[in-house]
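Its record is set out here:
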Amino acid sequence: MRLFIVIAALLLIPAFAVVMEWHFQSSGREAMLEQCRSRLAKAGLDEVSVRLDHFDAVLTGMCSDPADLEKAQALVTNVRGVRLKFDDNQIRVPAKLSANIHGHEMLLSGWLPREGHRLQIVRLAKASRPDLEVSAADIRLSPRVALGPESQTRDGLQPKVFASLLESIRLPASLSITGDGHHYIFKGSLPSPAVRDAIVKAAKESAPGLEIDASQFIGDEHVAAAPFAQGMDLADFVRLYFESPTPGSFQIDQRNGPRIQAYATTAMESAWLAALRPVSGSSRVAMEVTRVPSLFHFPTYQPQSKLEPQVVVGLRETFRLQRVLFDSGSAKIKAEEEAKLSVLAETIKKAGPDLHLIVAGYSDVGGEPVGKTMQHARADVVRSKLVELGVPGNLLEAMPFEAVRPPGPLTDEVRRDTRSVELLIK
């Protein structure tokens, strides 16, 4: 009897196991799966999938952060009855890199698969930004991180996550020119050494008398590309810009476009804008220009007349105060202006034959209909009167100029002052 009971029990064990397996597959397994899925969903891990092989769980899918990978494992492991080994956690995390630049240091952060990848991105970052110290202490490493697809870069075929980072840290293309009329400093960076050298050469050739420091202006292939830095259009503009007696300040970058702060005649301003058109594209040129009637009015204009500097200063002040005024629409010298011309004639003769002058004629800034005809006529009549008063004619050259309207309202006094002739040291 006992033997029969033992045999019966042994026969019932497989049957019991089959029943238990059926019960687990039909209800228990599904319940555990539902708990796992519910916990993952509540944690926002919707791209993680879980399957059960009896009581052993296998995780697959993607997480955005290595911390989420660990969170998913902890959530599933805490489901009663479920076992999850590290090797069964097959979740992948896309590689991620970002850079923060503080002063002269670049801090890299993110996550990569192996130490070799971290060393590789540090090397590439240093090559792209040799001006910065690179720290990669905040890059975490995990074998579950996937580098992802590759893309072609100027450094060769690289993981796309590397290419994106390298593009984001490139020096932005820019050019800044500042100076005081004698010494000019070029700063910035361009993606082409040839364009950089052409710009510096253009400035030196146009203004050989100026001191130009380009030690802070670099050309390197790792600088970010910019439309204004392509070709030689920017060098052509700089060549024209430095033909000015007093080049001002000039800046250009991708975000702000070109900016100019300088003295200029109307013709020079128009020429600069035309030269910048192929450089700026659709960007507006920000012009802060102090307009002057002629090259002789620039603050740093160096007269050709061989006179002592202190003599030049005194003469300029005398001529500024002794402008010859005219009635509207007239080139006839008024009686009250005759005395000015007598004083001017004596001053010129006293200065001697080294003083060469421009007799500059202007019309009303309010708009005299005769235009340049009146400017010519006024300059000629004053020149003739000075010759009549004993000034050698070879020292005087009559020229018409467009008067510059001063800031503020256009009053009768402003219009009267611009209907004039002034003497300029040539």
In short: Residues 15-27 have pLDDT under 50 and may be disordered.
